[in-house]
Amino acid sequence: MQRRQATLKEKLSEHYRKRDFKAKKQTASTAGVVFFLCMLVTLVLEGLVVLLPRYYTSDDGSMASGYRLSQLLAVWLFLATAANWYNTYYDVANRVTKEMKAAHYPSSSETPPGWKNCPLCMLDAPPRSHHCSLCNYCILKRDHHCFVTGSCVGYHNQRTFVVFCIYTLISTTWAAFLQISYLNQDLPISTYWASFYFPLAGLWQYLAGAVPFLNFFILVHLCCTLVSFGLVVFFLFWQLVIIARGQTSFEAWKQISIYRRRAVLNNFQDVFGQLTNFLLCLVVPLRLPMPADGIKWVIEPKEEKGH
Ligand SMILES: [Zn+2]
Ligand SMILES: [Zn+2]
After folding, report:
1. 97 alpha carbon to ligand 1 midpoint, in Å?
2. What's the confidence (pLDDT) of residue 25?
3. Which among 126, 152, 172, 267 could bridge 295 via Cys, Cβ 3.0 to 4.6 Å?
4. Domain count within the chain
5. How many angstroms does the Cα of residue 130 sit away from the middle of ligand 2?
6. Separation of 191 CA from ligand 2 center, angstroms?
7. Would 168 be classed as within a structural domain?
8. Minimum-distance ligand to the CA of 151?
9. What is the distance in A from the centroid of ligand 1 to the CA of 139?
10. pLDDT > 90? residue 12
C-alpha cells in the first residue's frame, strides 16, 4: 500500500503543531534567573573584596572610618535582596486550586458568577486570576510573569516583589557608584581615558594591553549593573503606578478599571496591607499574611451600603 505524500501546507501545520513555544519562553525565564543570581553573587564579592577596600583606603594606606559599617551594609543588602527574591520566587500560595472553589461554593458544580473556567488547567478560577503558560497554573490576581525570579507575580507575592525591587534599586545604585569611583581612580574619566568607558573601546584597550583585566571586568560589570538599574527603575515605577490605580499589569494593558471611585490609600493597602506590616516586611524579609485571600473581590460595587 502506497502512502499519500503530505502537501507543503500539511507539513507546515504539522510543524507548528509540534513546535514547543513554551520551551523557548522557559529558556528565557531560566536565563533571567541565572543572570540575576550571577549578578547578585559577583556584585557582593566584588564589593567586599575589591571596591570597598579601595574606596575606604586613605592616602597613608589605613582604612577610613565607616569601612566596617559599609561591609556590614553590603552583606545585609545581599541577604535582604536574596531573601526577597526567594519570597517572590516561592509563589505556591498564588496557584488556583480546586479547594478554593470548594471552600467558597461547596454545593455548586457550576462555574460561580464572576469566575471563569480555565480550559488549560480545567479549574474554575476566581475573578482577576489568569493562566500563566510558563508556570502552567492559574494565578490569583496575576500581574505578570517575572523572568528574574522565574515565577508569577500575583496576589500573595506582589508586596515582596516590590520590596525586592527596592533592595535591587539600592544595591545597583550603590554598586554603580563604587564601580565608577574605582575605575575613575585608575582611568580618570576627565582625561583621554574617557574612551575606555565605551565598552567596545574598553575591550580594544584591554586586548591591546593598555588596561589590566580587572579594570575591564569592572567595566563589563558596570554595564550589567546599569542595565539592571534601568530595568528595576522601570518595574518599580510601573508597579507603583498600577497599584495606585488598583489594577494589575494585565488589567492596565486591557484598560480594565476595577475600582474607579476608591481612594489610592485603599489600593495600596490591598497590596501592602497595613503600614506596620509593610514596614516590617521592608526591614525583615517576612512572609506576613495578606489582608484578604485574593479569591473574593468586590469589583466596582454597584450598590453602596445605605443606598
Ligand atoms: Zn489555568
Ligand atoms: Zn508565570
Report:
1. 10
2. 61
3. 126
4. 1
5. 10
6. 48
7. yes
8. 2
9. 8
10. no
Place of cell 496591607: 273
CA of 253 to the centre of ligand 1 (A): 20
Q: 155 alpha carbon to ligand 1 midpoint, in Å?
A: 15
How far does the centroid of ligand 1 lie from the alpha carbon of residue 127, in Å?
12
What percent of the chain has pLDDT above 90? 57
Cα(166) to centroid of ligand 1, in Å?
Answer: 30
User: Please, are residues 127 and 82 in contact by the beta-carbon 8 Å criterion?
Assistant: no
In a domain, 242, yes or no: yes
* Ligand with smallest separation from the Cα of 129: 1
Ligand nearest to the CA of 29: 2
Averaged pLDDT, 253-275: 86
Question: What number of other Cβ atoms are within 10 A of residue 112's Cβ?
Answer: 13
Residues having C-beta closer than 5 Å to ion ligand 1: 118, 120-121, 131, 138
**Residue 141: inside a domain:** no
Ligand nearest to the CA of 131: 1
**Closest to 239 in 3D by CA, of 124, 157, 117:** 157
Which residue has 534599586 as its cell numbers? 169
pLDDT at 305: 44
Strand partners, 57: 63
* Cell (9 digits) for 223: 554595564
Q: What is the tens place of the pLDDT at every residue in 18-39?
A: 555 454 567 777 889 999 999 9
Question: Rounded CA gap, 251 and 242, in Å?
Answer: 9
Residue 163's contacts (CB-CB under 8 Å, 6 or more residues apart) are: 84, 281, 282, 285
Q: How far apart are CA 291 and CA 172, in angstroms?
A: 31
Question: Taking a C-beta distance cutoff of 8 angstroms, is the pair 141, 294 a contact?
Answer: yes
Coil vs helix vs strand at 139: strand
Domain range for residue 75? 22-93+159-283
